[in-house]
What we know:
The protein has helices at residues 2-11, 17-33, 47-53, 57-64, 102-109, 135-146; strands at 39-42, 74-75, 82-83, 86-87, 113-114, 123-131, 150-159. It is an alpha/beta fold. The strands form three sheets. The chain has a three-stranded parallel beta sheet with strand order 1-6-7, with helices on both faces. A two-stranded antiparallel sheet has the order 2-5. It has a two-stranded antiparallel sheet with strand order 3-4. The longest helix is centred in the N-terminal third of the chain and has 17 residues, at 17-33. The chain is globular and about 40 Å long.
Amino acid sequence: MRTLVLELKLRGRVDLAGVLAARFGAVVGAALASSPGAVLVRVPPSRSGRRRRGFDPVVLLLARAGVRRPPALLRVPEPRRRTEHGAGGPRGRAHGQKERTATERVAATVGTLRAPIRLRGRDVVLVDDVVTTGVTMAEAVRAVRAAGGRVVRCVALAEVEG
Length: 162
């Protein structure tokens, strides 16, 4: 699974989407079936990941699985943060999540998502492609709760074991 997901996300192997979509669609379908009336909401990819790949893996996989494109949470633009090295770090760039400590990941992620759709009083199934540290999914749960929704399931195609 790890190899297939990496090939899709890092090397743009969209030809593998069909294989991955069957499993993903089944898991998403089971989550929705166990939560009648719940709305499916996707976690958006990072802006840099979307630009680099040219596609949203969740949208691609759900489409191949025959699942209608669900609404997405929105990324809130992150203000440039100053560090002890100046703006963004030693080279003037913001650090990626992989280079951050767990505490830095949480601090950099809180408040970066919001729900643009009406979720007050609704049950929500959150969907993302991969859960690495869980920080992004936790932020997605926070955003849904802030909009008045209740997260009843979190679904991902894969998770990275730590």
